[in-house]
Amino acid sequence: MQLLTTILRQHFLAFIAIVLLNLVSAALGIAIISWINHGLLTEQSLALGLAKMLGLLILLLATTLGAQWSLTTLGHQFIWHKRSAMIWQMMHTPIASLEAKGEGELLALLGPDIRNITLAFVRLPELIQGVVLAIVAIGYLGYLSLPVLLITVLWLLVTFTLGYQMVSKVYQHIAQVRGFESDLQSSFQVVIQGRKELALNPVRAQHFYKHTYQAAAQGYKRNIIKADSYHLSAINWSNIMMLGLIAVIFLISGTQNWVSMSVATSFSLTILFLRTPLLQAIGAYPTLLAGELAFKKINEVLPQVAQPSAEQFAPLESWQQLRWENIAWQYPQSAFQVGPISMTVSRGETVFIIGANGSGKSTLSLMLTGLYPTQQGQAYCDQQPIPTTQLRSFFSVVFTKPYLFDTLFLEPDEEDTQLAAEWLCRLQLEKKITLNNHQLSTLALSAGQSKRIALLLAMAEKRDILFLDEWAAEQDPQFRRYFYRELLPWLKKLGKTLIIISHDDDYFDVADRVYEMQHGNLRLLSAEESRQAARAVISQFL
């Protein structure tokens, strides 16, 4: 199992120590059975016998709890490390790869999958204890009678072979459950994010409920019932067969005289002692299978990524020009391609990009900022090739649908408090937002105000280039004019390089250059062409 292999590789010595503790615990358990059967009644003093038995039981309890506690602690340490690694990998996995997986799949990784690995560790002590105890018990039973041991082993082989066939069915259905789990997570997202639209349109809500949610929920229910049914069948089959084995041993003792009744009793007591741990081990196995499946899925979706060095993110403070040459991007399973595109931005410029919906403007923003590593071409800084990670360090971006963090400055200094107050005033948010230790008081804002907060957060990053994707679309006409006529010139005076995706042709005179995206291609427009192109785009909405 990949999960156990990884545990052994990372915690070999600790795991071996835990197995040894289980061996000691198993040996003590068998020793207690042997002493009860052969030594307890021969003690001269009943009090001494009871004291010995109490001491052995306390020692058994201590070693058993020690083994289980150690493995549980190791498990939670492993889970903490794995969850932390997942978050790190997710933050450093290419954006396009995560988008291809879908949010439902990613939520399933962070929720049900990591929970299944945790449950696997919780049940792992039962499996180890059952296996170790069985090995020690077999040695003890062989000491008592090899012929009866042979019958016992054959009986158990038949029992667990058929039980394993049932458990393999459990694994098949758990794999199906995992797929439906991802679909359910996607459905939950629809209910949460689309709750307003569903409330307004009962027909759509009914269609979603019947055809999307119920398809996932019924598939999950159907497979989890089958998995549990095979699991319970395996446990009950094993339980009945263990009891049947005891009957066979006494039958052999009474009719064939292979062993004495005392030895048959020892066999029976040992099997009864083994019965609960073995049944727990069988019960734990499907949980371990689910954990193994989750572990494989996590490693498949989030492969190991190297931790980038600080130098890779270090911006070049004295740069004068960024240039992209013949960069291109094509979405998987899509014929649409953006590029090849060549573009140059000089320090301190204001550049506008226009284009119709679906022309590739937002994709271009991801390419220029390095979030989509281009499938061809190269970015250059002052004629020197620049890696994607360092390219990102130039940009603060406000996307079409930005995510708002509630922390303004990550490493504030004394001047930042005054800057924040000034910026809030310039964005006309001083009556709506207050700052407490650089924390924003609220994010419950209108769409336009949320975009202003996104711009505030981008400015607080203090990077050289501001890239705004249709930022003014949600602003009222008065603030839109204020944005183009006052905010942008002010930002330019601060030394910011501005790249703006916009359709506001009345303000194109603010830009030093205007580019147009059309069917995935980019071209530089003259002043007259820029006005005509913008009007053509706007006319599509009228």
- Ends apart, CA distance between termini: 61 Å
**Secondary-structure element pattern, one letter each:** HHHHHHHHHEEEHEEHEHEEHEHEEEH
As a whole number of angstroms, the C-alpha radius of gyration is 34 Å
CATH overall fold name of the largest domain? ABC transporter transmembrane region fold
Query: Helix fraction?
Result: 55-70%
CATH architecture of the largest domain: Up-down Bundle
- The coarse silhouette is elongated
Count of helical regions: 15
For this structure, the quaternary state is single chain
Total domains: 2
- Name the structural class: alpha/beta
Number of strands: 12
Give the full name of the CATH homologous superfamily of the largest domain: ABC transporter type 1, transmembrane domain
